[in-house]
Design brief:
By secondary structure, the protein is an alpha+beta fold. It has helices at residues 2-14, 16-54, 71-75, 96-106, 137-141, 169-175, 206-211, 217-223, 243-254, 261-264, 266-304, 306-314, 319-353, 375-401, 405-410; strands at 58-61, 109-123, 126-135, 150-153, 164-168, 182-187, 192-201, 212-216, 232-237, 258-260, 356-361, 364-368. It folds into two domains: 2-52 and 268-410, no CATH class; 113-225, no CATH class. Helix 11 (266-304) packs across helix 13 (319-353) and helix 13 packs antiparallel against helix 14.
């Protein structure tokens, strides 16, 4: 085996320029594959992290996945019943105190209850549509990251009591209002109350900064004329990836729709899977092209060393020895290219991570490229490189092993 290795190294070094080109081709393929994988994986991880941080892991609303059977359907034998509705349809989670107590007994995380209602905020002849979110500040602090996103005032101002309101900075700008101004909140039922702006937040998401306003839960219940009602329970788990199981248990027990963050973003998660398949397909294609360079040099060596092959076989080297020798040559080029590609990939990834820029489009702000540093990217790129190198070396090796030494020595074609 040592002799075969020595001969393989001699063949490779004997064509130094071509070998260097092949190694550089593999290195460029591996390096750019690592950088691309780091960038795409970093973008995916950053997006998922933002989902986990900015939204509840499980959200319970006063809805059911399937329509409840109506009493009229039980009472009357009819094919279909339409046009029947209760005189006062005021949805909400029934017995919220018991529901919160049950959840608090086993859920490994934090809970927050709220009442969400639609309305309008008015100020000096201007108005803006708003989603009023009635919260209990102490519970909300453990659930919502919005408490850290204030540009003026603070979320803690709600705890002081009174008719206080915190709104997004874009909503305040649209209304022409500022910190300390008094605005009028009008609910969908037509009831209006005056509130003082005690905080402005900026999350970077236009929909929230333009359309959300937070107030005390009791004030939201008064504004919407729904005393003691809540229609939303949000949960932050210690382990975000346990959300699916928790949501299934909650929905089975309470009967209300419980949505995990994975379910709420199912289409996005599926798109990530497709994107990863595309990414690794591109990586394979890049390294396959590099494999052609290895195939070319090993084929050239096989052709030029035909008489050497004949002499070696006549001295007792077997077909498997010939195949092993040329496969080793291909793998050696692939391994050298992989090592150089690791250095290139690290340098490219570091360069991408050091880029700083600011983008303000559609409310989303980015100051740096999200990069994922993972040894798996290096292993996968090297695996593809060595695999393509082994195949590129095997094909001419197979041909060389089949050569008849007598025909070569006699000069037969």
């Amino acid at each position: 085996m040592r002799l075969i290795l020595d001969i393989a190294v001699t063949h490779i070094l004997g064509r130094g320029r071509q070998t260097l080109v092949a190694v550089i081709g593999v290195a460029v393929g591996v390096g750019f594959s690592i950088a691309m994988a780091a960038l795409m994986q970093g973008g995916q991880d950053d997006f998922v992290e933002q989902l986990i941080d900015t939204m509840p892991h499980v959200q319970i609303t006063d809805e059911q996945r399937s329509t409840r059977r109506q009493p009229a359907e039980t009472e009357f034998d009819a094919a279909a019943i339409s046009g029947i509705r209760p005189p006062d349809d005021r949805r909400g989670i029934i017995n919220p105190t018991a529901a919160m107590a049950w959840l608090g007994g086993w859920v490994p995380g934090n809970l927050a209850q709220s009442l969400r209602t639609q309305g309008v905020v008015r100020y000096q002849g201007r108005e803006a549509g708003a989603a009023f979110v009635g919260v209990e500040p102490e519970m909300e602090r453990a659930i919502s990251p919005i408490v850290e996103d204030f540009t003026a005032g603070s979320f803690a101002a709600l705890s002081q009591g009174g008719n206080n309101l915190v709104v997004g900075d874009r909503m305040a700008e649209k209304l022409g209002a500022g910190l300390g101004d008094t605005v009028t909140a009008v609910s969908s039922s037509g009831l209006s109350r005056s509130f003082r702006i005690t905080g402005l937040f900026h999350t970077g998401t236009t929909a929230r900064d333009e359309g959300e306003a937070y107030l005390l839960l009791k004030n939201a219940q008064i504004l919407s004329e729904r005393p003691n009602a809540i229609n939303d329970i949000r949960i932050k788990l210690h382990d975000p990836y346990a959300a699916r199981e928790a949501a299934r248990r909650i929905e089975a027990e309470l009967g209300y729709k419980a949505v995990s963050w994975q379910e709420a973003n199912e289409s996005i998660m599926e798109a990530f899977v497709v994107r990863n398949v595309i990414m690794y397909a591109v990586v394979a294609a890049i390294l396959l092209v590099a494999g052609f360079g290895i195939f070319n040099i090993v084929s050239t060596i096989t052709h030029e060393k035909a008489r050497d092959i004949a002499i070696m076989k006549s001295l007792g080297f077997s077909r498997s020895d010939m195949q092993r020798m040329f496969v080793i040559e291909g793998i050696a080029i692939g391994a050298a290219g992989s090592l150089l590609g690791w250095a290139l990939g690290f340098a490219l990834t570091y360069a991408l991570a050091s880029i700083r820029f600011e983008l303000d489009a559609g409310g989303q702000e980015i100051t740096e490229l999200p990069i994922a540093w993972s040894a798996l990217h290096y292993a996968i790129a090297s695996g593809f490189a060595l695999g393509s190198a082994a195949v590129a070396g095997y094909l001419p090796a197979r041909k060389a092993a089949r050569l008849n030494p007598v025909d070569i020595i006699r000069g037969a074609t």
